Structures are given as structure tokens and as C-alpha cells.
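== Item description ==
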Amino acid sequence: MKIGILALQGAFVEHEKVLAKLGVESVELRNLEDFLQHQSNLSGLILPGGESTAMGKLLRDQNMLLPLREAILNGLPVFGTCAGLILLARQITSQEESHLATMDIVVERNAYGRQLGSFYTEAEFNGVGKIPMTFIRGPIISEVGKGVDVLAVVNHQIVAAQEKNMLVTSFHPELTNDLRLHQYFINMCK
């Protein structure tokens, strides 16, 4: 099994470390050539946290947006954390243009405010149990489509969801020592 990690910007190294702890090989995808070279061997894809606007621009500049979108729509399992969630959303409330737009969710960027609004909590994650959640200027999911399962709610806000092959969290599971969420995604990839 090999998981691709979008490595344009953001917290991709932290995801690599978690996958290594779980004994799963990962590969950094920095450009279209990397993706095309590894595409046929990828069991899944992680879109890390970072700055969604910068990542979206880089995806367009690298001509990666459409190939990634097509792969996801064709069933490649994908796990988007924080900015990765925003990249997958059908609609972003504060801007006209979405990015990959593969998941039937509406998101609000930076819903938890500035860096000072970051926080840590523990909450129930459907199918996994109570897990640690680190929020850093995280988005919230304000609306979900019919085929989307809500997996976690914090303070009456949706912070994790799944639709078919797409898993998203508003928080950063890669910043805790709890490996269960990445294992959940690996199970999706099998």
C-alpha cells in the first residue's frame, strides 16, 4: 500500500510520520509529474492542512487540479484535513470559486477565527470513539448533501464527514499521538 500526500504547502511531513508509524509507505506529490508517476500505485491520497487559497493556486499552476479531481471522482480514497477539507468542498461560503469540488459539503473557512482561536478538545468520532482534536484556524462544515455522513460534531458544529471515498476533518489528527483516524483512512484504502 502506498499513500500519496499532496506536498505543495502545509503539514504534509506530519502525515508522513503518522503513516510511517502505521507501517504504510507514503510518497510526496509536489507536481503533476509526481502524481502521474505514482498514480497507478496509489491506494489513497492525503490533502493536508495549510493555506487552502495557496494550495488551490498551486494546484492550478502545477496543472494538478483536474487530474486529482478526476482520480477522486473515479474512486481514489482521499483524506482532507483542515485546508484539505476546504479543497474538497463543493462550495466555500466566503469565496466564489471552489477548488476540487468533489464532496457535497459547504464550508466556512477560518470559522474558528485567527490563530488565537485555535484549541484542543476530545470528542466522539463515529466508528472510532473519543479522539483528541487539534483545531488551528479550522473550517466548519455548514451544510452536507444527502450522501454525506456526519462523523463528528464539536460545539454544535460539524467537524468531520465522509462521502463515499472522501473523508474530511476540520481538525489536525496528524498533530496528536492518536493513530486511529489515519488507520480509519487506511481501512478505507484497502
Q: What stands out?
A: Residues 79 and 185 are 7 Å apart (CA to CA).
